[in-house]
Design brief:
The complex is a heterodimer. In chain A, about 35% of the residues lie in helices and about 15% in strands. Chain A is built from 10 helices and 8 strands. Chain A has an 8-stranded mixed sheet with strand order 3-2-1-4-5-6-7-8, sandwiched between helices. In chain A, helix 4 runs parallel beside helix 5. The longest helix of chain A has 20 residues. Chain A is globular. Chain A starts with 5 loop residues before the first helix and ends in a 30-residue tail after the last strand. By secondary structure, chain B is mainly beta. Chain B has 1 helix and 5 strands. Chain B has a 5-stranded mixed sheet, with no helix packed on it. In chain B, strand 3 and strand 4 form a beta hairpin. The longest helix of chain B is centred in the first third of the chain and has 7 residues. The chains are: A alpha/beta, B mainly beta. At the A-B interface, strand 5, strand 6, helix 8 and strand 8 of A face strand 5 of B.
Chain lengths: ~270, ~70
């Protein structure tokens, strides 16, 4: 149980009066621990909304520093933060919004040697990374550690997201199996992204995390939500967990391994 | 024959295999889609051998690797 102060009761009043959240739901949020991997286009809105919502502990992972070209979409960072480590820039904004939130920073990139230990300590994980080797690694780690998470991907004007409850709903590899060949990947800096699209997808991921913590509604289990901001068409594609999935199936993975990192500059 | 492609019902010529549909639907990089046929995800190597039939439902799910 958590005893909210008068300040917190007022701060969270729009959650507390919200049917399906209430004081009980706000307590669950305050007692939850969520890990945001990547403090970029997706991680920025996710971290801001989770901090504003009063998530008790938020971990944020990124090994990079803020670059001027990030500011078109990575709304947690400001012009004065250029060259500052992204996790420190993010932590300052999150604490400015809500000093009740404990922010833990991991100023590093995740790999097979460290991801399991970090992920294990959280109730829910947000994938806000920008490459397939990280996305598949996060999926593997969350399946092995049995931690639910939100997959998110964006490209140009489009986005996709699904929520994964390991061993119960389909995982990322049930749908996409393995990283695509490096020479085919139109991601990274040269494909481009409409900044607001990162915000659209990131706020969906934040809502999914809060839904999961509160236990309300229907998470994006066994379906991929995709949208195209050019047409503003949103679509759900339904599927089932694949019993033969390379990662979460009967013969699934037993240990964590790195995927080959894709070198963005090699093509396009 | 009628096929449902990414949620839209379309009239497509009879008897084509999946790899031909990828061309018709302008999927320029087949490596960058996961193809779902009637709820099952296919392997890349199967596209040339699977003949489509009336009322099949096909989804092309694009890999999206961005996020930063």
């Amino acid at each position: 149980m958590k005893d909210f102060s008068d300040e917190e009761l007022e701060r969270y009043s729009r959650h507390i009066i919200l049917q399906d959240v209430g004081i009980e739901g706000q307590e669950k949020i305050a007692n939850s621990k969520i890990l945001v991997i990547g403090a970029g286009g997706l991680g920025s809105p996710v971290a801001l909304y989770l901090a504003a919502a009063g998530v008790g502990e938020i971990g944020i992972v990124d090994g990079d520093v803020v670059d001027l070209s990030n500011l078109q979409r990575q709304v947690i960072h400001a012009t004065a933060d250029v060259n500052v480590p992204k996790v420190l820039s993010a932590k300052a904004k999150m604490e400015a919004i809500n000093p009740n939130v404990k922010v833990t920073v991991y100023q590093k990139f995740l790999d097979a040697s460290n991801i399991l230990d970090i992920v294990k300590g959280y109730d829910f994980v947000i994938d806000g990374t920008d490459n397939f080797s990280s996305k598949f690694l996060i999926n593997d780690a969350c399946v092995l550690a049995n931690v639910p998470y939100s997959h998110g991907g964006i490209l140009r004007f489009g986005g996709q997201t699904m929520t994964i409850k390991p061993h119960e709903s389909a995982c990322y590899a049930c749908v996409f199996d393995s990283p695509p060949p490096a020479n085919a990947i139109p991601t990274c800096s040269s494909a481009g992204i409409l900044g607001a699209v990162a915000g659209m997808l990131g706020t969906i991921q934040a809502a999914e995390a809060l839904k999961y913590i509160v236990g309300v509604g229907e998470p994006l289990y066994n379906r991929l939500l995709t949208f195209d901001a050019k047409t503003m068409n949103f679509r759900n594609v339904n599927f089932k967990k694949n019993p033969k999935c390379r990662v979460c199936g009967g013969e699934g993975i037993k240990e964590i391994k790195d995927y080959e990192a894709v070198v963005c500059e090699a093509k396009l | 024959m009628k096929l449902t492609i990414n949620g839209d019902v379309k009239e497509i010529k009879d008897g084509i295999v999946l790899s031909e549909l990828l061309v018709i639907e302008n999927v320029e990089m087949p490596e960058m889609v996961s193809v779902q046929l009637n709820d099952e995800f296919l392997k890349q190597g199967e596209y040339q051998t699977i003949t489509l039939k009336e009322n099949d439902e096909i989804n092309f799910l694009y890999f999206m690797g961005g996020g930063a």
